């Protein structure tokens, strides 16, 4: 255990989050996503796991240490439901609430068409597979910056 670090964050996940740079993309995937095969195409090249967590629990833990790149519209994305791109299922509403809590205000995720999501995921820095079993529990987070002391 480490003081001040969310215990849901394992060593492999912490390593990847720390290694990522400004603008790098992180994929948070549900249990049904082809995570292993997609992860082989990422910068990290291997799958990370947070199997014992829902998507919202994983995002909440990640955002306790991970700054979002809120200078761009796609700082956070969600896989759209096929044929219903504007529908927000409960799993996505929960992740949106975790993002809003971390940011201190409502910052909506962008929708990403299912097959475009797969293509985008292959270009990511890393893929983290959660234990989320609900459909469309797949998200992207783009890493931001931490400003110098005393600057916001």
Please render the helix and strand layout as text.
Blueprint: H1 11-19, E1 25-29, H2 35-39, E2 48-50, H3 55-62, E3 76-79, H4 90-103, E4 110-112, H5 114-122, E5 126-130, E6 139-142
Parallel strand pairs: 1-5, 2-5, 3-4
Antiparallel strand pairs: 1-6, 3-6
- Name of the CATH architecture: 3-Layer(aba) Sandwich
By CATH, the superfamily comes out as RbsD-like domain
- CATH topology value: RbsD-like fold
Number of strands: 6
As for the number of domains, it is 1
Please work out how many helical segments DSSP would assign: 5
Order of helices and strands: HEHEHEHEHEE
What overall geometry do the principal axes of the alpha carbons give? globular
| Residue share in helix | 25-40%
Supply Rg.
14 Å
Contiguous low-pLDDT stretches (5 residues minimum) are none
Largest sheet: 6 strands, mixed
Strand order, main sheet: write it out: 2-5-1-6-3-4
> CATH class, anyone?
Alpha Beta
Structural class: alpha/beta
- First CA to last CA: what distance? 30 Å
Mean pLDDT across residues: 96
The proportion of strand residues reads: 15-25%
GO molecular function: D-ribose pyranase activity; fucose binding; L-fucose mutarotase activity
Pfam families: RbsD_FucU
InterPro entries: RbsD-like_sf, RbsD/FucU_mutarotase, RbsD_FucU
Catalytic activity: beta-D-ribopyranose = beta-D-ribofuranose; alpha-L-fucose = beta-L-fucose
């Amino acid at each position: 255990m480490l003081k001040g670090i969310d215990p849901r964050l394992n060593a492999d996940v912490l390593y990847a989050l720390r290694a990522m740079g400004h603008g790098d993309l992180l994929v948070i995937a549900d249990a049904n996503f082809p995570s292993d095969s997609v992860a082989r195409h990422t910068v990290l090249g291997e799958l990370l796991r947070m199997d014992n967590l829902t998507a919202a629990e994983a995002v909440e833990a990640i955002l306790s240490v991970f700054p979002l790149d809120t200078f761009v519209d796609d700082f956070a994305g969600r896989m759209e439901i096929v044929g219903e791109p504007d529908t927000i299922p409960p799993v996505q509403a929960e992740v949106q609430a975790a993002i809003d809590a971390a940011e201190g205000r409502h910052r909506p995720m962008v929708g990403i068409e299912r097959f475009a999501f797969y293509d985008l995921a292959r270009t990511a820095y890393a893929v983290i597979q959660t234990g989320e079993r609900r459909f469309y529990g797949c998200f992207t987070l783009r890493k931001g910056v931490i400003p110098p002391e005393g600057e916001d």
